[in-house]
Structures
1.
Amino acid sequence: MALRFEVLGRFNRARAAQLTLPHFACQTPLFMPVGTQGTIKGLTTDQLEEIGCQIILGNTYHLALRPTSELIDELGGLHKFMNWPRALLTDSGGFQMVSCITNLYVAGIFYTQWHFAYIFQVSLLHLADITEKGVTFQSPVDGKPMLLTPEESIQIQNRIGADIIMALDDVVRTTITGPRIEEAMYRTLRWVDRCIAAHKRPHEQNLFGIVQGGLDPVLRDICVRGLVDRNLPGYAIGGLAGGEDKDSFWRVVAQCTAALPEDKPRYVMGVGYPLDIVVCSALGADMYDCVYPTRTARFGTALVPEGVLKLKHNAMVNDTRPIDPTCACMVCKNYTRAYIHCLVTKDAMGSQLLSYHNLYYMLQLSRNLHSSIVEGRFVCDFLQKMFPKGDVPEWVCNAMDVAGIDISSCCSS
Amino acid sequence: MKFAVKALSSGKARAGVVHLGSCPSSIETPCLLLSTRKGLPIFISPDLLSSLPSPDSNLLQFSPLHFSEGPSPKTISSIGGLHQMVGLHEYGFAAVARDSIQCLPECGSTNKTGASFETPCGRRLIKPVEYMEMITSMKPNLWATLADEVPAWANNKRNKTSVDRTVKWLDECIARSPAGGAVFGSIVGGSNIEERKRCAQEVAVRNVSGYWIGGFGLGESMEERPSLLNAVTDNLPKDWPRMICGLGLPEEVLQGVAAGVDLFDSAYIYHLTIGGFALTFPLDRTEKIDYNYQLSDQGSDRTKINLRATVYRKDATPIVEDCCCYTCQNHTKAYINHLLNVHEMLAQILLEIHNTHHYLGFFRSIREAIKEGCFEQFQKKFVQSRREHLAADVVSV
């Protein structure tokens, strides 16, 4: 184990904690920007530090392809390679192969200059085959069949050198039903043992296990207990953020956070929208990652307290207000919607500035969650700004009920 | 705007100082105007701009045509002008219709009503009235009048028309000139010495604060350029600044300096950056020829390196060893090589920073050479050493 997790404050199930990793001491709840190929699109490491980024997620699959984990290792690990002094987390490489977010990837072809890698993933989708050995897929480089085993995934992640590494799991879409889910859950547990055995750097890198089991509470329970038995440094809740309805989503998170140990970090993978992060934090989760803020920036959409602002829209052409008057970021302090409008989708600078703002927004959200969990007031403020008419979705009300947070002041009914 | 010549070398090359209202410090000339798109560098975000040497990097160039699809001049006025709109209050902006990267003069479609340009939004015809409306709303520190630029191969009749038109538009622009902002009278004339002289003489008697020399970088050869440049500068008063467009390469800049030009734009940095190249030519004027330099057969020469080349995959050294730009202080060739291979935008950001930094260093050494009175030798030595290296490379292959 190479981390320390100390809860500093609570509000019912929600916790504000300090997560001390080898490269950085982080405050949770926290959001991790996704730096797929060893960079957050369009931002420098200086800028990321400036806006308060604590952990960056790197994609093992992409990095293993280019520039390869061996090269990264030879040059001293990913931290040194990209010159990022704070924490890193790598995923197992499995998700990219069975990724179900095809429409967003296809839309990314618009920006072929910068999104080349995504085209490969669309073609991979149909070519992945999962067996007990591992995940077999066709290499996008030369078409040869390749096998990613739990052992290989851990070896690659050992070479990359992130503070947190993820066990290879058998992940299935929550929209699938039937025996496949049970098979995947048990296989995930068997693979975790293989990952633990293969892990060569347990004192420098923390191996997190991932809870699977689809939307079935019985399967989820078995998986949680199985992982907790292995006494891992931290746990992730996987298999969500793939199109399931919100009502099912929050119930799985609630169940898992209730059963996972209090004194270890809980990471909900692939989440997400600001509202989802607020709800999951209320239910007791600590860490999140998602491509959403940076990806939506490249399509001209800004994150604001009211939800989203589409800068591409014609209404913005002559709007001289900042994107978000309450935001303290460099973009909101200096630029008008009109100016950003003329940049987005046409100039690289538009993507950069919006990505900067959107990430600042997510990181500020994390900071606000951390600092006000004890007060419990934050959730209401957030919901009031996002739903000024009081039309808070039912799933959010139900989730907050379970979390023990009173949001009656935000709801109209 | 205030301008003063401080030193001369080899007769015409001059070192001077320009002071613009919005910039806290004066800027030494000859100097480089950084290319922008809509007022901001193409890749370097505004908070990273300050990592470039100051005040050298404080002069930016843009084209009003960048805003042909919005925001409207009315909106820009209500925001307070370009400086306000792009959040760069302590920078100087020069407005020129032509930017050698994106807004290229299309002389075939230019007619008596306006100048035509190829832009990312298609072909645009801009009339003096519209041009001045944009200038008035944007409030740049200095701006060039609308010109009819023709390429070097234009026939004499077309060339003569372009001179007449440019002078006519100059008068129209001056008539609508906003208060504040220095007018630079545009001078054209293609590759005809007589027309160049005629245009310069016409513009020299107008009430302007400086001169913008257009029509270069449009097909004239390196050999014929000096006499064309001299035909212009010989007929301009010495006390006003001269700005030029289209001389991008170092050797071309040196030709401009030799003829007495003070302000230069350059598309060179942009083209290097998007090509994945980083400038490495030595800036140290006392440098001896480096015979230990390894020849790479992947498109590298001693002036720049091609960071896409596989030879850099594991190179954990910075682009230039003692360069103090953000890129060289923080990143390695291996990392940039990776970013280029995976088509990540950060590659262009890091390269634009380094290339700009390096090219600004080149301008600094030009100024030093002028102040020491040895510009002519500096130019000769620079051109010669680049030719020698190329010759040596050819022989060794």
Note: Chain A touches chain B through 47 residues (CB under 8 Å).
2.
Amino acid sequence: ILFIYSSRSARLLPEKLTVYTTLVGLLNARNYNFGGEFVEAMIRQLKETLKNNLYNEAVYLVRFLSDLVNCHVIAAPSMVAMFENFVSVTQEEDVPQVRSDWFVYVVLSCLPWVGKELYEKKDVEMDRLLSQIEGYLKRRVKTHVPMLQVWTAEKPHPQEEYLDCLWAQIQKLKKDRWQERHILRPYIAFDSVLCEALQHNLPPFTPPGHMPDAQYPMPRVVFRMFDYTDAPEGPVMPGSHSVERFVIEENLHCIIKTHWRERKTCAAQLLSYPGKNKIPLNYHIVEVIFGELFQLPSPPHIDVMYTTLLIELCKLQPGSLPQVLAQATEMLYMRLDTMNSSCVDRLINWFSHHLSNFQFRWSWDDWSDCLTMDLEKPKPKFVKEVLEKSMRLSYHQRIVDIVPPTFSALIPAEPIFSYKYEDESASSLPGYPASVTVGNAIKNRASNEEILTILKEVPNPNQEDDDDEGESFNPLKVDVFLQTLLHLAAKSFSHSFSALGKFHEILKALTESDEGKLHILKVVYDVWRNHPQMIAVLVDKMIRTQIVDCAAVANWLFSQDMAHEFTRLFIWEILHSTIRKMDKHVQKIQQELEEAKDKLEKQQHKRDSGDDEDMDKNSEDEEGQLEEQIERLQEKVESAQSEQKNLFLVIFQRFIMLLTEHLVRCETGSVDITTPWYKNCVGRLQQVFLMHHVTIQQYMGTLENLLFTAELDPHILAVYQQFCALQL
Amino acid sequence: MSVKLNALFSDSYVDISQYRDQHFKGNRYDQEKLLKQSNTLYVGNLSFYTTEDQVHEIFSKSGDVKRIIIGLDKVKKTACGFCFVEYYTRTGAENAMRFINGTRLDDRIIRTDWDAGFKEGRQYGRGKSGGQVRDEYRQDYDPARGGYGKLASQHRPTEAQNTF
């Protein structure tokens, strides 16, 4: 029982590792067999976690084992042997780089705990080990790094590749003769007891071979935003290449990993970090939290968790943490020019949500430098988007009240409906008479047939009066009907949803063609252009009720009509939401297929193992039905996947077209390509790859053959290549 | 010791509360079963002026929202400070319980709780005056919730008379 408890705790409370290893050490000193069984159990567990792709957990297990060397449970030479086996993975051929990366990472990350002991016993072997690692790190490919960096600039803090940073930290530790003072080592106090204990040898451990379906952890970049110059009073922040920095960050990440579901506990645990008096703990906590929030491709936990955790921390440390957070926000604002687009989006969402919990109090005047810049530059853009999001959580007048009058150019528009056929002044418009008739018909609860009849009379601007070729697409019909309907339903989201539902039949009829689908989206934008939140929810509803399809939405977002909105956050929120819906749709049908297949298997199993008496016509019929159902679902899956692939083709094709146009224009005009628009667009392309990398991996072949070919402009191709490098 | 181990997996923000809807058609067991698998949340302590847009914005942070039903005064048919939020997935609702419950919307700390599922009629306040029960009896002045509680506001004019 005790080792279930201990080993569980080892996995789940890694920041308290040394407490449990000491406990095991003391037990081993009393009872040699216990120690042996415990080690065996841990090795078994390690094998299991590796088999199940639980690499992050496996790191903690290996670290636990290595600390058991310090507690005289495991003999140092056998640990070195295990490390040698791990590092030998770097000699394997034809394996993904991320595989050998992991084994090197595990060894290096244990050294802060056990480096001293291992060097004392086996320095020659350890030196050899480290030089093997050094060789590997030198020849490692690092194309993936730019895609994972939060900032593209090297100053003030370089965004280092994680293995490079850890290597530098271990090098420094070695130079310091493995003197490490941060980790709490309770076993030192019990040295007299522990050194009498008999040690066990680790059984030879061969790393499991590479399996094609293995999912190794993705490479990452170390997030740093503070250094020793930032904490004005009190303890100094350990340097970026100090091993203390590594250990503190590891432990804080572990605490969040364990307690993220319970914000009060999480905040309390973070703030009671042992050794907090020797480090500027608030700065470390804020840095680690933002590091996770900005992690690429995505944060380890849902974004909103970090907002609530920071609020909780502010509650517990009202005298100190809010100031650190304000300082951090200021720094993040200053560095917006080189920040990755996805990270800027997350910052916008975090900051606006955070402010809404503190009456939107902020020293806006500190940011008045953004008022004299081109509004497309990152800083004014950021403030604009923050104010827009803040308005969504409150109301327009509130935003007017909270910013200084100098900021008026950045205040969002009042989110009101723009009705083309508002009043008599619009009477000259071709659709005006019909709009009045349709409006009255809807108010008087006319039937769909009656309304369609009215709409038939709407003149088609695309067609000649005497053109008798039948129904071609009539954009004015769509315009009149939808403008009028949405105008009547403008009161709230629910009213609009109800309207879409009630007139679903008519809307489906109007959007049968691709032109129709595109036009309906144009009209929605036209009427609600001051209320992007409403546009997003309406588009969502229309996809879910199949009035428009995902490809139509993508084409609309990239269309010329929307070019002036291209850099606004709501455009990308709609695009990513659309891609996610497509994804969920495919997954749903795949699941239905799996369930049907399982059902058939069970049925067949029952039949095979049953007597002849049980084999009646009914079960044969049922099987036949299931087989038919499976065939249909199979077709449905293929069709859905085809739709999904097409969606990505549309999106990437559009990106390539836009970017190529820009590059050609700049070249012919001898103008620098890196305009704010260009940086934004490239960032958005990267974002599509990163946010949906799992799905996109399935279609890599097609993408490479059709779109990302060698003929493509190297600037655009580079993004694709960086993406491919993530799973090397 | 198993208590301690369970503490490692604790997720208390997601637990069901003590509240049970007295109008629920079914027994306690049925209600609890529905609560434990529900995708719908009751949201309380809203300002009367909080709109569906605002509710949608904040609750979308924990998952895709399927629908929102704003609670109405049974007599006046105006918002009376509560609503239901239904998610497409249970996870969306759970994350709202973990991260949106107890934070602010329109400057007020809002409270979320599991709901067994919306049924027609449940969008109305159950207080005698038409609003929520809590607004019948409260003694404080809350400008975002119609001022004084209904009972308290009935007493008030009498007090003013007495001072003269």
Note: The two ends of chain A are 42 Å apart (CA to CA).
